[in-house]
TrEMBL record:
<feature type="domain" description="SGNH hydrolase-type esterase">
    <location>
        <begin position="43"/>
        <end position="307"/>
    </location>
</feature>
<feature type="disulfide bond">
    <location>
        <begin position="159"/>
        <end position="173"/>
    </location>
</feature>
<feature type="active site">
    <location>
        <position position="300"/>
    </location>
</feature>
<feature type="active site" description="Nucleophile">
    <location>
        <position position="47"/>
    </location>
</feature>
<dbReference type="InterPro" id="IPR037460">
    <property type="entry name" value="SEST-like"/>
</dbReference>
<feature type="disulfide bond">
    <location>
        <begin position="67"/>
        <end position="93"/>
    </location>
</feature>
<dbReference type="InterPro" id="IPR036514">
    <property type="entry name" value="SGNH_hydro_sf"/>
</dbReference>
<feature type="signal peptide">
    <location>
        <begin position="1"/>
        <end position="23"/>
    </location>
</feature>
<dbReference type="Pfam" id="PF13472">
    <property type="entry name" value="Lipase_GDSL_2"/>
</dbReference>
<feature type="disulfide bond">
    <location>
        <begin position="224"/>
        <end position="280"/>
    </location>
</feature>
<dbReference type="GO" id="GO:0016788">
    <property type="term" value="F:hydrolase activity, acting on ester bonds"/>
</dbReference>
<dbReference type="InterPro" id="IPR013830">
    <property type="entry name" value="SGNH_hydro"/>
</dbReference>
<keyword id="KW-1015">Disulfide bond</keyword>
<keyword id="KW-0732">Signal</keyword>
<protein>
    <submittedName>
        <fullName>Lipase</fullName>
    </submittedName>
</protein>
<dbReference type="GO" id="GO:0006629">
    <property type="term" value="P:lipid metabolic process"/>
</dbReference>
Length: 322
């Protein structure tokens, strides 16, 4: 493998490790009561809800809790659009797992990613499970989570490393990790079911809307250029196709199926509407490993992606009023 390939793999791996660490939460239980005529809406989820990256806006919490929500993430966009109808409590947090939503405290690390970056506010106190932000007065819950439980950042890191070693040929990541995927999906589905049960118990009158993940990888993986860090770096096209069909699409299906069996109010599909706006499309709604000139974006939605999510979630929220 050439030195340039190795460097791309290292950069790609560092970016993906940053993805799992760049993290957002208002302290649970500290939210205001909804005003007269408003419904209390609690937004739960991981970085695809929280925003996290600069391409999804600026962080706004003072003092910081290490979770770095951004002001153009979809909960904040919806809040500006529908604030007269819903009182938002946004406790989403980057790098959150399903367990962190359900009952496991999280230790945010902000942007402390040595040797890549040092966060002057690190370390941050642990934050409570996100479910503690909901209660008997909660009217609507949106929740977008599951990718970190499945280990998507781990997949991207390993695929970039193996793809560089193979100089972009074949499906080395699929060959290495495919046997683990069914068990990972089974675990994610079981934990998702339990999470919805806990949310129903804590907020018995709330309508729960589950939010799926957008299209990240195009249907035609040949759109993606090997070695391009604004896309997927050194992940092979074969492995990208496998990640789409055997990892990401089944995760969305597991979330949707859990929504139906656990009597949630509805599943918000972001995948279909974003199909032509993947990391490798001309008008992308999800950034690649980096955003030029020098920003780590680590495969997260940008402002366009969050605007699309907001459009669909607004429609679902308004439907809960009828």
């Amino acid at each position: 493998m050439t030195k340039s390939r190795v460097r791309l793999a290292v950069l790609g791996s560092a970016a993906v490790l940053a993805a799992s660490a760049l993290a957002p939460v208002q302290s649970a239980g500290a939210h205001p009561a909804a005003a007269a005529g408003q419904k209390q809406w609690v937004a739960l989820g991981d970085s695809y809800t929280a925003g996290v990256i600069r391409a999804a806006g600026d962080t706004f919490e003072v003092p910081r809790d290490g979770c770095d929500r951004t002001d153009r993430s979809y909960p904040q966009v919806v809040d500006r659009d529908l604030g007269g109808l819903f009182e938002l409590v946004n406790v989403s947090c980057g790098a959150a797992t399903i367990a962190n939503v359900t009952d496991t405290p999280q230790n945010p690390i902000g942007r402390h990613l040595p040797p890549i970056s040092e966060d002057p506010d690190y370390p941050f106190p642990a934050i409570p499970p996100q479910s503690e932000a909901v209660g008997t007065d909660t009217d609507v819950i949106t929740v977008g989570v599951g990718g970190n439980t499945l280990g998507f950042a781990e997949f991207l890191t390993k695929c970039a490393q193996l793809g560089a070693e193979q100089d972009g040929q074949g499906t080395p990541c699929k060959d290495s990790l495919a046997p683990d995927v069914p068990d990972r999906l089974k675990t994610a589905r079981e934990q998702y079911d339990r999470m919805l049960t806990v949310l129903h118990t804590r907020a018995p009158k709330a309508k729960i809307l589950t939010v799926g993940y957008p299209t990240v990888i195009p249907q035609d993986a040949s759109k993606c250029s090997f070695g391009d860090l604004t896309q997927f770096g050194t992940i092979t096209q074969g492995d990208l196709a496998w990640l789409r069909t055997d990892v990401l699409e089944p995760l969305n299906k597991a979330i949707e199926d859990s929504t139906g069996t656990q009597d949630a109010a509805g599943f918000v599909d972001l995948y279909t509407s974003s199909r032509n706006h993947s990391v490798c499309d001309d008008t992308k709604w999800v950034e690649g490993f980096v955003t030029l000139p020098d920003q780590l974006s680590v495969v997260h939605p940008n402002t366009l992606g969050h605007r699309n999510a907001a459009d669909h979630i607004e429609e679902a929220l308004l439907n809960t009023l009828s």
